[in-house]
TrEMBL record:
Keyword line: ATP-binding, DNA damage, DNA recombination, DNA repair, DNA-binding, Helicase, Hydrolase, Isomerase, Metal-binding, Nucleotide-binding, Zinc
Residues of the full protein shown: 1 to 419 of 731
TM region positions: none
EC identifiers of the protein: 5.6.2.4
Entry's family note: Belongs to the helicase family. RecQ subfamily.
Location of the Helicase ATP-binding domain: 27-199
Molecular-function annotations in GO: 3'-5' DNA helicase activity; ATP binding; DNA binding; four-way junction helicase activity; hydrolase activity; metal ion binding
Cofactor(s) of this protein: Mg(2+); Zn(2+)
Signal sequence annotation: none
Protein name, per record: DNA helicase RecQ
Source species: Niastella vici
An example Gene Ontology CC term for this record: replisome
Chain ranges of the Helicase C-terminal domain: 226-374
Enzymatic reactions: Couples ATP hydrolysis with the unwinding of duplex DNA by translocating in the 3'-5' direction
GO biological process: DNA recombination; DNA repair; DNA replication; SOS response
Length: 419
């Protein structure tokens, strides 16, 4: 397809004048029938790389996406662009029998161009048979890092995708997309998804507008005071605070409220209605801060989050990058502050104690990399990018604590940490 007609489709279907980054060559590759592997940071516009081809191709694209909540969001977005409700559907465990029948009817009629499914949906034999009889355009595997134990969100069901795609239709191309760029995860994805001589598109992972800082975590009340001071100084700008456990989200949110900062807690222990309500409070800026476990954030598209604070050390550099990456999506200010203590490292290690040995080994390795990052005196950006296999050659990024205030290693001593 010519560039002119792709641009026309972009304008007509999505209302955008230009492709973002390398969307156009990616789309052309997929439309040429090749397996395509897209590695692009969060906010880079990965969805459009399969949505546009899906709309202009014959048949239905099957899009595999890990989170049910995310799926509905995406489908609503696509429908709002196209103003045709039957252009996209999802199939997952939340639908009634009647709704499923309606989706099937739309699929058979050829009106539907995109079908979002959870990997579980594909494991059901009746679905496999139904999909095998459909005219399909391609498979898109979103959040493809879920296939790898080295990624930040391993989902065992993803391991069965190749087998199921082969059963449904082995002859259509596959596009895999992720914001996870570590070489280990990449090769896991290619291998486990069985991508055939894929064309690989990797974008830079540098986020020049993000400022990175590590603070030693001293006594809990001092840390909270320091956080309160910081948030007050951010004057009403939105931010996320990540904590390791559910209880701390509630405690911290209460503390912030007591200090006149509007905050809510968010974690997987809350029922889905309450989670949705609190997420909306944050997205609509009825509260300034959401204090959350890592249950919050995947797929959240709020462009003006101005800070991400880690109250505890994250599980891996990858997690840290993803979580901080939710700040400053609009390209403007984004402050990322991590409070670091050895005690939190021990807590993390303790959480893994019941896991199988291989998982503990992977976990320990990931934690030790995060520790090295936290204690390093080297430019934070340089470390993050080298983690993703990129070289950052500037001497001074001007946007991290180590570049702005060269100093000795941050060492938070165990004996002063009381959490
Ligand atoms: P990712 O999945 O890579 O994190 P998304 O697909 O959610 O990113 O896209 C991020 C944002 O970029 C969305 O708000 C989307 O509408 C916007 N976007 C995508 N492509 C374009 C484009 N060509 N022009 C303008 N905005 C775009
Ligand atoms: Mg995405």
């Amino acid at each position: 397809m010519s560039s002119a007609s792709l641009h026309q489709a972009l304008q007509e279907q999505f209302g955008f004048d230009q492709f973002k980054g390398n969307q156009e060559p990616i789309i052309k590759c997929l439309l040429a029938g090749k397996d395509t592997f897209v590695i692009k940071p969060t906010g880079g516009g990965k969805s459009l790389c399969y949505q546009l081809p899906a709309i202009i191709s014959e048949g239905v694209a099957i899009i595999i996406s890990p989170l049910i909540a995310l799926m509905k969001n995406q489908v609503d977005l696509v429908r709002s662009y196209s103003s045709k409700d039957d252009v996209a559907h999802f199939l997952n465990s939340t639908l009634t029998k009647k709704e499923i029948r309606e989706v099937h009817d739309d699929l058979l009629s050829g009106r539907t161009k995109m079908l979002y499914v959870a990997p579980e949906t594909l494991t059901k034999q009746e679905n496999l048979e139904f999909f095998s009889d459909l005219k399909l355009s391609f498979f898109a595997v979103d959040e493809a890092h879920c296939i790898s134990e080295w990624g930040h969100d391993f989902r065992p069901e993803y391991r069965r995708l190749r087998e199921m795609m082969t059963q449904i239709n082995p002859d259509i191309p596959v596009i895999a997309l992720t914001a996870t760029a570590t070489p280990k995860v990449q090769s896991d994805i290619i291998k486990n998804l069985g991508l055939k001589e894929p064309e690989i598109f990797i974008s830079s992972f540098n986020r020049p507008n993000l400022y990175y800082e590590i603070q030693p975590k001293i006594k809990k009340d001092q840390t909270i005071k320091s956080i309160v001071r910081f948030i007050v100084q951010m004057k009403g700008k939105s931010g996320i605070i990540y904590t390791l456990n559910r209880k701390t989200t509630e405690e911290l949110a209460d503390m912030l409220m007591a200090n006149g900062i509007k905050a809510v807690a968010y974690h997987a222990g809350l029922d889905s209605k309450l989670r949705a309500e609190r997420q909306d409070l944050f997205l609509n800026e009825d509260v300034q801060v959401i204090v959350a476990t890592i249950a919050f954030g995947m797929g959240i598209d709020k462009p003006d989050i101005r800070f991400v604070i880690h109250f505890n050390i994250p599980k891996s550099i990858e997690n840290y990058y993803q979580e901080t990456g939710r700040a400053g999506r609009d390209g403007l200010e984004g402050k990322c502050i991590l409070y670091y203590s050895h005690k939190d490292v021990s807590k993390l290690e303790h959480l893994m104690r019941d896991k199988p040995l291989s998982e503990r080994e992977v976990g320990a390795q990931l934690i030790s990399e995060t520790v090295a990052y936290s204690e390093s005196g080297v430019c934070r950006r340089k470390i993050l990018m080298s983690y993703f296999g990129e070289e950052y050659t500037e001497k001074n990024c001007g946007q991290c604590d180590n570049c702005l205030h060269p100093k000795e290693q941050v060492e938070a001593k165990d004996n002063v940490v009381k959490v």
